[in-house]
Every structure is written in structure tokens, then in C-alpha cells.
Amino acid sequence: MIRPTFATNILRELRRSHLTVTVIFVCLIAQLLVCSAVSVEADSEVYFSSENVFEIPSKNSSISFGTNGTYEAATLEDGVWSFRNLYIADSRAKDKLNLTISATDCDLTFYSYVRAPYSYGVAVLEWVILRYFISGQGTQVINLGLDPDNGQLDVILDGNFAPRNQDWTKAEDGTLTITGSHSNVTLWYIRNPEPSESDSLLTEHNILLGSTGFFAFIVFLAVIIKKHKSEVRTSFNRINLTSNPEETFGGK
Question: Domain boundaries in the chain?
Fold first, then answer.
């Protein structure tokens, strides 16, 4: 006959084993979910090379890149290629670009771009520089996907800054249209400066000092007024005592 204590120990061990198996199973499921999420994120990026060509048959043009890169989506609609989260290898950039590109009667080749913050005094600027080469004489229409109202867009044609309306125009939404006979074009965007963290702290410090100084001035003014009232009251009492002593002491 099996002792009760021995049977209890067996049940306890079985329960522990069941719990251990459950914990292992849950950990495996969690690991599979994490791996699946990473795989989905990796699969969302499409890799391309310099051999890939994005044709625009309706406009007798094409777009290509001089090196490798990735994007999350690339669609052609009405003769316009839209690239979402585009990254070109060897670029000096942490953030990706959302480009819309169209061309007529020419072929464009894009190389690396620059997108990085730049400190200027207490302000922080952001530069975005994109350069491409042109084969053929045609028109290019490009939108960098940046806020045109919060920065300045310039165009460099064959190494020279070109004034607006001289072989290029800008629409209200920031779309650039480049015309004329050129071999290379550089698009230069500078975002308006934003206060840096140190500048914000300095501003808050100045506000605090100003508020403290104003409060101290109010307290000082209140003390002066109170003291002045006390002196006026004392002087008034002296005048009464001097001018009408009988009424003051209740006698004649």
C-alpha cells in the first residue's frame, strides 16, 4: 500500500512538471510572435539595385538609382512614381524620403542624398540635399515630401544656384518642375530653424527670473505703500494734536 505522503509528493511533482511545460510553451509562443513581427517588418522593405529601372512608358522616360537601396512601396500612377520610405545606400541620412518623381523625354539617375540636422547657434536646422543626373533634354517634376511652408527650397543647375522661374518653378505644395538642358540637378531644402533644447531652457530660465523679479517688485511696492500710509497717519495725528488739543484730550 502506498503511503499518503508518497502519493502527495508524486502529485506535487506532476503539478510542477505541468507548470514548467506551460511556461515553456508560453515562452515559445511569445518568441514566435516576436520573430513573426520582425519578419513582417523586414518583408515590408523592398530591395533594389542599380540595375532596376522604373519605366514611365507614357512619357518616354525612366528613373533609376546609381546604387542599392530600399523602399516600402513604389507605385506608378498617371506617369508619376511614388516612393514611400525610400533609402539610398551610402546616404548621409538617418531618415528616409517620400518622393514623387515624374519625367518627360529624359532618363534620371539618383544617387545618395543628405538628410541631417545642423546646429546654427542656438537654432537647429535640417538639410535635405538630393542630386540626380539627366540623360536627354526633357522636363522633371519632383516633390521631396517636405513641408514647403516650413522651409526653403533651392535648385542648383549644373553646379550653379538658379533663381526661381529660371528653368525651374515651385508649386504651392512644394512640387518642383525643372526644364531646360542640364546634365545634373541638386535639390536643396533647408527647414526653418527651431529652438534648441538649451535655448528653450534659457527661455524658461528668463521667464522664471522675470516672474520672480516682478513678484519681488510688487512686494517692495506694497511695503513702501504701507510704510507711507503709516507715516501719513502719524503726521495726520500730530497735526490734529497741534491744531486742536482740547478736542483731542476732551477738555477746554
Answer: 1-43, 46-195, 198-249
